[in-house]
Amino acid sequence: MILKKTEGQNLIEYAIVVALVSAAMAAMSTYVFRSVQATQKAVTQEFANE
Question: What is the pTM (predicted TM-score) of this model?
Fold first, then answer.
């Protein structure tokens, strides 16, 4: 019975998952930043109108 070493394969799989999660968070941060800016602008305009 031949045993295969899978440590390298596991490391690559974890690296791919981390890369995908990082890319998703980077893409999402743009939309979150825009949302925060829009909320700040709306609050500023609301106070300016009073």
Answer: 0.56
Each residue of 14-43: pLDDT tens digit? 999 999 999 999 999 989 999 999 999 999
Amino acid at 42: A
Which value, in Å, is the radius of gyration of the alpha carbons in the chain?
A: 22
Contacts for 36-43 with beta carbons within 8 Å, 24 or more apart? none
Euclidean distance between CA atoms 24 and 35, whole angstroms: 17
Please give the structure tokens belonging to residue 42. 């709306």
What are the helix and strand counts (H, E) for the chain?
1, 0
32, two tokens: 């979150």
Tokens of 40: 């700040």
